[in-house]
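Backbone-to-sequence.
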């Protein structure tokens, strides 16, 4: 019987094993040897088994056996999304206790609530999307209908099975090209490395993604307006952007990438009321910069006067950056620096020699972050506090040597 495929995302795995000693066996042995009535014969083992078949069946599986959640492959290289679905891969899994399959156990993968149910051989399937950078935990979540050898799983064994999990990870391989002593600090090393994409893949390393449009919305008396939404778009529906609702200070923001210095419609909505620029008027958003647009709404009507002081715009600092960054999977109080990868994925990491000698794993993250205090580009140095992995980012990446 073929199990139905279940969709998840995720690589690098590890296995938790649990040795289970049945407390029921120990209890039966104690009762057999310590009867309060010395004239009563202790119950036989066969009698115990027939009077409590479920406990006996569970105990016979658990004694001397380990829990194993096996996945046929837990490490995958990230690849481009393909229209034909070739970026998806199916892996096989199996859940056994002491060599005996666990049937009808329910597993979940990552944050997905879709049930993955084991068949009579304890087997299941998972579909891996290799186009997503991801670290996905596969874990047992229910044993309500599970059986081992045709018998339900007892409470103590269930508790251990529900602790069982493994990980599937999808990431770009990280190649360490060389490690050199730091010329600036004898206690540090400089690691020259590379994030390797597959041939033909287009990888987006950390770069400008959008600029911020922000400002304040006020009423005609100069008071901040709360819960107003600022919209921008062109007549053809292009360049659409919608802000966060204004807060108690009238402040809003949205992120936008102007394609050219074309005019855009500027609209403010409060509930069902819509304020617009005068008919035929548009707003010109400058390229390659963030901008502050302060808007004062009219006392009467819904037409915004398109000149100061009711409509003011000034350029401002900052940009939204996004892309792939790498770092070391070390405690947050362990400081190091890492550079933004160039278009070939090359980056440099500088860290204490003692930390590097402990062979720390790498992590990768697709970071999106607004940076206001400086402009960033390939090769710029970032502090480790800037580059932190997300909860589902791959964090157990073992580097490979150059040419491997």
């Amino acid at each position: 019987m073929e199990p139905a495929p279940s969709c998840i995302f995720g690589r690098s795995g590890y296995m938790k094993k649990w040795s289970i000693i049945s407390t029921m066996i120990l209890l039966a042995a104690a009762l057999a040897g310590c009867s309060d009535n010395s004239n009563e014969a202790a119950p036989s083992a066969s009698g115990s088994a027939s009077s409590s078949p479920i406990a006996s069946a569970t105990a016979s599986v658990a004694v001397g056996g380990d829990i194993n959640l096996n996945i046929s492959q837990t490490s995958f290289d990230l690849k481009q999304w393909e229209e034909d679905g070739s970026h998806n891969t199916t892996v096989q899994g199996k859940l056994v206790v002491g060599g005996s399959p666990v049937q009808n156990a329910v597993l979940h993968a990552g944050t997905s609530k879709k049930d993955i149910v084991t068949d009579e051989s304890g087997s299941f399937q998972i579909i891996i999307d290799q186009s997503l950078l991801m670290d996905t935990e596969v874990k047992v979540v229910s044993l309500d209908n599970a059986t081992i050898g045709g018998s339900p799983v007892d409470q103590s064994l269930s508790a251990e099975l529900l602790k069982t999990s493994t990980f599937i990870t999808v990431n770009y391989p990280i190649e360490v090209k060389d490690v050199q002593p730091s010329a600036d600090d004898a206690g540090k090393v400089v690691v020259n490395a590379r994030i390797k994409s597959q041939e033909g893949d287009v990888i987006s390393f950390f770069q400008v993604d959008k600029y911020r449009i922000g400002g304040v919305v006020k009423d005609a008396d100069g008071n901040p307006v709360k819960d107003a939404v600022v919209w921008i778009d062109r007549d053809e529906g292009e360049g659409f952007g919608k802000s966060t609702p204004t807060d108690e200070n009238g402040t809003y923001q949205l992120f936008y990438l102007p394609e050219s210095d074309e005019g855009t419609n500027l609209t403010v909505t409060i509930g069902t009321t819509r304020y617009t620029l005068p008919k035929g008027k548009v707003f010109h958003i400058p390229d390659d910069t963030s901008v502050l647009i302060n808007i004062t709404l009219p006392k009467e009507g819904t037409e915004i006067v398109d000149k100061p002081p009711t409509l003011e715009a000034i350029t401002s600092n900052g940009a939204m950056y996004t892309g792939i960054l790498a770092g070391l999977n070390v405690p947050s109080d362990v400081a190091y620096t890492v550079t933004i990868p160039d278009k070939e994925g090359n980056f440099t990491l500088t860290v204490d020699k003692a930390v590097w000698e402990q062979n720390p794993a790498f992590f990768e993250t697709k970071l999106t972050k607004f940076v206001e205090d400086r402009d960033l580009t390939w090769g710029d140095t970032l502090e480790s506090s800037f580059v932190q992995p997300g909860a589902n980012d791959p964090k157990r990446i073992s580097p490979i040597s150059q040419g491997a």
